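Human: I would love a firmer grasp of how sequence relates to backbone shape in proteins. Could you go through the record with me and say what the backbone is doing? Here is the record:
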Amino acid sequence: MAKKSVAVLGLGRFGSAFAKTAAELGHEVIGLDKDETVIKELSPYLVVAAQADLYKLTKDDLMSLGIRNVDFAVVAISELDLSALLSMELLEEGIKVVARANTELQARLLRKLGVEKIIMPAAESGVRAAYQLLEGHIYDVMGIYTDLVMAELKPPNSWIGKKLSDLNVPSKYGVLVVGVKSSEDFILGNRDYVVKSSDILLITGKTQDVYNFLRQQR
């Protein structure tokens, strides 16, 4: 994926995980929080690290930090009044907003303001959200096993021209290639399939194993 820029307003547990993961994936991150300690800890990951009381920030203050130029802003704040206020100000400037919500009621109110993407941290970690929003190829697997995810990616160059059975993916990476989207068809579970450069691989595994695998392929 192309490098993106994102602003994260509120660097609590969720916001910090999102900001750090986004930076590790090679994206540019602007971070804002009132806690000086948090700002210092995350400053190596941020292109702009601003300590500020978000309740007192004006729209001009926000824009002066370069937020107008980001691909989207993450409002990672639990307080509904502040989350709504910041979301509204960002939306008025034409900035795409992703907002955190702790309850379905909060999510509904934020959607009424025009926030299209709502993240519920109780069900979605900051790490997972960063992959989904910035990398565009992570999918939750809903069901009994809640620690499973699926991902789509282009095959690494070293895989092209080889059979899936020869790659030993499960033993090497702890993930499974469960299918291949080719230009002709969707291939499911064929270990003798020879990987092509135009293919899209569908992999699955435990959340951390999939994240580690994707990092290795960057």
